Amino acid sequence: MLTHAQYSVTLLYKSDEKFENRTCDTFTNKEEKVVGCHSRISSANPRIYLRINASGTDFYKIYIFRFFPRDIEKMDPPQNIKASIESGSLKIKWNQPHVLSITNNNSACFQYELKLNDSKNVQIQTIHERTSYNLSIIDAMRTYLLKLRGKKSDICYTNNIWSDWSTIVVLKPEGRNKLNSLVIALIVLGIPSVLLAVLLIFRCQRVLEKLFPPIPSPIIKNKNVLEKDTFFKTDAPKYIEEITIVVEDSSEDDRL
Residue 114: what pLDDT? Predict the structure, then answer.
């Protein structure tokens, strides 16, 4: 390819002796130059022609490449991934991707990679000819992130194009999930129950006040009178004591 050229891509799809132009989504490199394209096809039988137009200040060239779909097909990532931790073992299942060039869905024609990541390690396991996998060395108290990708195996077709990675599946510790569920259940059921109990207490208090009204207290004036000690108090009799004092005159005795 020319170094200082600008490129554009056209995809020609030949079926039943007819050519059709197909949309090809291009992608570029760091220098913003077209380095490839991606398009979906509906059949594995037709031939595909890739036309690359290269243009510059003083030149224009056309490159045409012919491909068969089975040689360049990039399959979709594994779907419907289900994972669980049971008795210290990681169990994973997924659906086999649909591939145009493999019509009999032979599991031997597929190869997968499993990427397992926890807070300390990253493991990559290669899986052949099956859509399930068990890993026994698992710490049930850790959180794991896993994803899968696949490609066609060399047993059926020579194709080394890996699919994109699947969406990430998160596996959390079982005890934490149970605790969270218990806390959520207590919050959802506990708060309304407490509010209902408080409402019933106030309601019952109002009913009791209507059924058994309180005894009225005495009037303040009468109460003050009753509290005084002088209400039934009589004056004690007063006695006047008269004392007569006799004084003798001593002057007359002296005269005698």
Answer: 94
Is the confidence at residue 158, as pLDDT, over 90? no
3-state secondary structure of 186: helix
CATH number, domain 79-171, options 2.40.240.20, 2.60.40.10, 3.40.50.2000, 3.30.300.30: 2.60.40.10
What is the reported pLDDT for 54? 83
Residue 131 gets which letter from DSSP?
S
Q: What angle do CA 200, 201, 203 make, to 5 degrees?
A: 60
Helix ranges (H only) for 36-148 are: 69-72
Separation between Cα atoms, residue 117 and residue 47, nearest integer Å: 41
The tokens describing 142, both together, are 């850790």
- Residue 200 class from Cβ within 10 Å (0-12 exposed, 13-18 middle, 19+ buried)? exposed
> Cβ neighbours of residue 14 under 8 Å, at least 6 residues apart?
20, 46, 47, 48, 49
- The predicted model scores a pTM of 0.57
Domain ranges in the chain? 6-67, 79-171
C-alpha span between 149 and 164 (Å, rounded): 6
Q: Which two tokens stand for residue 217?
A: 């207290």
**Predicted confidence band at 174 (pLDDT cuts at 50, 70, 90)?**
low
Question: Cα angle vertex 117, ends 114, 123, to 5°?
Answer: 55
